[in-house]
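In response to reviewer comment 3 from the previous cycle, which asked for concrete evidence that the modeling workflow produces usable outputs, we include below a single protein chain processed end to end. The sequence was submitted unchanged, and the resulting structure tokens are shown without manual editing.
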Amino acid sequence: MRDIPDRKELTVGRLFELLGDKLDLEPVSGTTGYGRQVASPDISRPGMALTGYLHKFLHERIQIFGETEKSFLDSLSEEERRSSLRSIFDFPVYCSIVTKGMEPPPELVEMSAAHSAALFRSKRDTTPLIHDLTSFLDLVFAPRTDVYGTLVEVFGAGLLCTGRSAIGKSETVLGLIERGHRLIADDRVHVRRIGNALFGNGDTRMAHHMEIRGLGLVDVSAFYGIRSVKERQQIHLEVKLEEWSRENQDFDRTGLVQQINTILDIPIPRTVIPVLPGRNLTLLLEVAVMNYLLLQKGRNVPEEVERDLIERIIRKETESRSDQPGPEGPVED
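The workflow returned the following structure tokens.
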């Protein structure tokens, strides 16, 4: 799903529009409440509230009525059931879902309509429905920012290519796509923090298009096929393209110093590559990703080379000292 609304734009009606088919939602009552805003990324099982324990009742969440809640309500008399449901509708409940295709109690249908609180029924089991619903809400409510660059999947890793305008980011990534890698977003990357990871996606209106100077807009999926694009990708590393000049030659030659860039309080490794005429930047970006993947497997090539050099120097010095005569000179027979 590429079209993820801003949290302030997520109403109950918009949620139904986006997830109705996936969650198999059937409107039952309270459709006048479709304009109410979804206020939390979490969900609530109102079992305790139905028994009368309303301390810290999480009314700002979508309420899920599973088999446990339904069987409890069915065990009550009509008056008790009405009283139980009235206690939670005294709070500003805005959306409820009855799972497993169960028939909602008529009192729940009635009160949902009276309070303009949307009521849906789903044939899906409770646990998978909650999983899919919360996964979507986590995306909507996640901290977000925009990064100007190009996001591409290379060997399964998310590579964020950044640099000043017109330095050649899009052209370089186009070369990666030509080599079988996948585009997620060009020019502006919408970045969200989910847990301790960063995920990026593109703009809906410019989905899978690239702006190449001199050519204009290029439809990547039309040119290279549907396998050349992807909707969303975790961001693992950043490669920044920086113009080389005689005044700016301070680039890492050994790889021993790892640069870090922090986005939404999440640190990601950054490699700075100087842009020079004749350099194969596409190949260099592939190598940057392969180096990152080696690091994830515990191999640090620069450190291995440095360690090997130090061992050679120490060994050579030791051998040199052992060959030198002692303080009394060489021993004569």
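The chain has a mean pLDDT of 89. We consider this sufficient to address the reviewer's concern, and the full set will be provided in the supplementary archive.
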